[in-house]
Please model this.
Amino acid sequence: MLQNESDIYPYSVTDLSRMNALVLAPHPDDESLGCGGSITKHIKAGSRVKVIFLTDGDKGDFENRFAENYVKIRRQSAQKAMEILGVKDYEFWGYRDRSLHQIEGEVVDRLLHIVEAFPPSLIYAPSPYEAHPDHKTTAKIALKIFEKTGITLLLYEVLMALFPTILVDISSEMERKRKAINSYYTEIYYNNYITKIEGLNRFRTTTLPNTVTFAEGFILLEKEVSGKKISLRLLSTLLD
Model:
């Protein structure tokens, strides 16, 4: 049967801002790049947000420009970004960059304790379509948490575009997102993320009204209310 465009790609926005959110960032900056606007929407709505920075991102200084201070600088940048986005609850787990695939089970167990203590209504994590191994492993970890708990999962895009199932209007939050990204000046030195992410978020409004100037795209995975059927759109592809 021939499908309408809206059956394939979202033509309206979704607002999940009143749900408490746990955000998984493989490295300091991924949270701002991938879902900084949505984080701000949660904070504005009075929802609880907890951000966990899984690695210290120590291998990101490709030219050794920032030498022994690099990890410290990235952490300070993350603290500044959290202040800009309005997040007060965040943790640095300090695993080594590109090491997550070696400790996947340990991270899953730690996150299950966080989920029990927090607890979130939804979890943000990078998409498995991402190229960086830490991003892909974080996605795999998040999918395991989803399978174990059924907590709604939103997969975000950073360096690799995904095929979104929902769009979130961040027009009013874009300036704050831009400032948060700008906090990571060591990363901006290597890549003009502000211009590129701003372009991606503009592009995501293609199917939306002109009043929406910026949007973040996500793949949404959720269990139905009955708890008997799991919405697994694209899940088999994501796990490949």
Remarks:
- Residues 225-231 have pLDDT under 50 and may be disordered.
- The radius of gyration is 17 Å.
